[in-house]
């Protein structure tokens, strides 16, 4: 069955963005395996806050060649050719997606949807890119309502900039 | 000059203990380099909450052969043959310690003293033992008042249980 992969960056202290959502601290000097990864997936999932952040970057929708699903309580958002909005029954929807044929599914974030899918045991793999920085505050990987969940490690990669990639798989 | 080393465990999501201080989720099946590490240090530093937790484990003071310093606002605590309590001027005290001859200094934690010393640029190295678990909530590595601080990576070690040791050094 296709996997849901949380492919995400964090600081040493576990933050995925500053409090205001800024990710200006992320390394952009190399590809860090991004292009290869995007060729293994055909679908992206994200929450409403992450969606608004992606829109805020301006320009074209960056996932044009993928099936894009955005989970949001904002019922005023209408699906279009680029994005399908899902307003309820999120775990059931993702279970359904996993049963369809296709490449893997990229869970982009953020904290809220990560936690919903973690708690439903729907995250199969985490590819975590730890940047060598203590941010001190910010948006955490998962929210405080996460259920304790154990993984096995399935690969590490060290980059010359000090970025560490850790790959965790569901036990 | 001797180094201050934060040798500490965390979850994938950056917690060093559960909300109530519990560390029942830590692996205890192997030594994970603990004994070798303790031979490189002759001094331990910790905050008041960590001190109370160590006392709560019962038994003898576990750092009998080390110089133990506890930073606490509780002026009722009187130094004894096992522990010296430091009630003020913590950064100056640690700077003074570093200038003395001796082995390295183990900063045990927790969040508060980690942050005080990070913000004074007094943490020379972090040896972080990431357990393969999402806890979801708990006591963070550093508190929200930490100053953004960058490190370089200086070693990784992977254990068969999925525990990852990352060694970071001050830039």
Please summarize what this structure is.
The structure is a homodimer of 171-residue chains. Chain A has helices spanning 34-38, 48-56, 90-99, 111-119, and strands spanning 4-11, 15-17, 41-47, 67-71, 83-86, 104-109, 125-131, 133-134, 139-140, 149-158, 164-170.
Name the descriptors.
alpha/beta, Dihydrofolate Reductase, subunit A, homodimer, 171 residues, two-stranded antiparallel sheet
What does this structure look like?
The structure is a homodimer of 171-residue chains. The first copy, chain A, is of the alpha/beta class. Chain A has one domain: Dihydrofolate Reductase, subunit A (3-Layer(aba) Sandwich). Chain A has 4 helices and 11 strands. In chain A, the strands form 2 sheets. An 8-stranded mixed sheet of chain A has the order 5-4-3-6-1-7-11-10. Chain A has a two-stranded antiparallel sheet with strand order 2-9. In chain A, strand 10 and strand 11 form a beta hairpin. The first copy, chain A, is globular, with a radius of gyration of 15 Å. In chain A, 37% of the residues are buried. The interface between A and B is large, with 37 and 37 residues. Strand 10 of chain A pairs antiparallel with strand 8 of chain B, so a sheet runs across the interface.
């Amino acid at each position: 069955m296709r996997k849901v992969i949380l492919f995400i960056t964090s600081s040493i202290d576990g933050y995925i963005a500053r409090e205001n959502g800024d990710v200006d601290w992320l390394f952009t000097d190399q590809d860090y395996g991004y292009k290869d990864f995007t060729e293994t997936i055909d679908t992206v999932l994200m929450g409403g806050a992450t969606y608004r952040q992606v829109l805020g970057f301006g320009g074209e929708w960056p996932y044009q060649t993928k099936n894009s699903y955005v989970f949001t309580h904002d019922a005023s958002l209408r699906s279009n050719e680029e994005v399908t909005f899902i307003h309820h029954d999120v775990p059931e929807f993702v279970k359904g997606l996993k049963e369809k044929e296709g490449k893997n599914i990229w869970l982009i974030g953020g904290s809220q949807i990560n936690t919903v899918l973690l708690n439903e045991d729907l995250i199969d793999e985490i590819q975590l890119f730890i940047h060598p920085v203590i941010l001190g505050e910010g948006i955490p990987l998962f929210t405080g309502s996460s259920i304790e969940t154990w993984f096995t490690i399935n690969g590490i990669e060290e980059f010359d900039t000090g970025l560490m990639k850790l790959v965790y798989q569901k036990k």
